[in-house]
Amino acid sequence: MNVHDTTAPAPHQKLQAACGREIVVGRLPFNGPEHLPGRVTLDVGPRSYDRDDAWISLTPAESRRLAEKLLAQAAAVERGEGATSERIEVTHAGGEAYAISVRQHTLLVDQPPDVDGDDSAATPTELFVASLASCVAFYAGRYLSRHGLPRDDLRVTAEFSMATDRPVRVGDVRLRVSALGVPEQRRAGLLAVASHCTLHNTLHQPPQVSIELS
After folding, report:
1. Beta-bridge mates of residue 174
2. CB neighbours of 127 closer than 8 A, spacing ≥ 6?
3. CA distance 104 to 84
4. Burial bucket for residue 24 (CB in 10 Å: 0-12, 13-18, 19+)
5. C-alpha 171: how far from its chain's center?
6. pLDDT along the chain (214 residues), means of 10
7. 34: alpha, beta or left, given left = phi > 0 and alpha = psi -120 to 50?
8. For all residues of the chain together, what is the average pLDDT?
């Protein structure tokens, strides 16, 4: 086999299926006449009962997780083997669904059935609010840890509504931070820290956003 190793071994992602097989999704870290560069690999772990093929059965949830891992590896190949980037890339994943590649992670967004989606994932708007809520949770959790307080019961609940006028946008977001066992003298500090998370600060001082066609 004439193989030339040109990069460090590519990271692999594993999925253990309920049927007993372990699926490994990765990328070829080499190229040559028998292995073209820019390929995604899928190993379904052959078993002793396999004959001419290796089949696998997946639950709907396992299928979605496998799709996410394949999309993540495909995005990594398109960015270049071993490349590091802070870019976030969004690609079409069928219907009204889109795959969001963030480093080696992949998220999915979709739309509800009333706008022709399959409701297979949260909407972009919901992820926007979820990002804000999780950012608040992260800052609140750091505050609790810094002061020796438990964060096992930390919870951030977010509710939002759309604006009633144009342009289409989120008009109101209501966040509630719940953390049991926080003494009275720490509550104001917790709220102050949670209210100054990165995304909350960004909403108060919006960044310049440019959209261009490439």
Report:
1. 159
2. 107, 109
3. 10
4. middle
5. 25
6. 35 74 72 61 69 73 80 72 66 90 86 93 97 97 96 96 96 97 95 97 94 92
7. alpha
8. 83
Domain ranges of the chain: 4-49+57-115, 124-204
Which region, left, alpha or beta, applies to residue 189 given φ > 0 means left and ψ of -120 to 50 means alpha?
Answer: alpha
- Topology annotation, domain 124-204: GMP Synthetase; Chain A, domain 3 (3.30.300)
Helix (H, G, I), strand (E, B) or coil at 82: coil
- Residue 116's H or E segment, with its range, is none
Q: Apex CA 195: angle with CA 127 and CA 133, to 5°?
A: 20
Helix axis angle, 184-194 to 124-146, nearest 10°? 140
**Predicted pLDDT at 29:** 59
Cβ distance 152 to 190 under 8 Å?
A: no
Per-residue H/E/C for 88-103: EEEEECCCCCEEEEEC
Please name which of 67, 69, 114, 115 lies closest in space to residue 93, comparing C-alpha atoms. Answer: 67
In a 3-state reduction of DSSP, which class is residue 153? coil
Query: By 3-state DSSP, what share of the chain in percent is helix, strand and coil, each rounded to 5?
Result: 30, 25, 45
